[in-house]
Prior knowledge:
The chain is α+β, with helices and mostly antiparallel strands. Helices cover 46% and strands 7% of the residues. A 4-stranded mixed beta sheet has the order 2-1-3-4, sandwiched between helices.
Amino acid sequence: MASTDSVLKFFDLDGHNRPFSPMTWRFVLNYKKIPYRTVWVPFADVAKTMQQNHIAPTMQTEPFYTVPAIIDDNNVASGREPAIVSDSPAIARYLDETYPDPPIFTPLGKEAVEAHVAEVRPLLVVLVNICVAHTSRILEDRHKEAFIATRTKYFGVHPDDLFAPDKQEAVWKSVYDGLDRLSDYIERLETHRPGASFPFGGDVPCYADFALCSGFMWLKKCSPEGAWEKIQDLNGGKWERLCKGCEPYSQSLVNV
């Protein structure tokens, strides 16, 4: 097993039922079997931790710093500087270029996979309303205070207001409409195979599959009870099959 001083460091949010934040990068790390060590970062300490580790901000407005982020020391032995990457698209490119086997963009091609991710994104934006509203309920003390303060400033309303009782019906309608639209898009793809575990990749996952599943995993862990059950069997069971297909890559199987 690799030394913990040389493996890739993966910065992720700490909290109850961890990992509870969207876990696209944990999926990718485990799928590629890249040895890594998770650095669990309490919510109120994200900015401080990123600054201490010389990790660049990912936003131009508050909260400025976000996770995930990675520091890859595997190049140090060959005389190169550690790779420090914090922006999500940049992390995807870095991991696939540095650890190409198995790939997350081919054989479909990077352009096609990124087009699939663009189709997934509107649904993820809708799920944010449910998940952000519930996240404050699983944080405590100063971390809860920091979350509410930064998200209120970012969204312009208190997180609870994103999924307030009078908005829930409309939010759920947007979720259902988004799932229907995405399902139609998937079924029109030339690569679509009915009943496949991965709606975009087929027998093997691609980055778009991980991006979509990360949204569903976030819903499972940061939403009111029964939220996932509302959608898991919709659209011919695509979403439940996807989550089951991604299960082997959801845990820290190669964590050191």
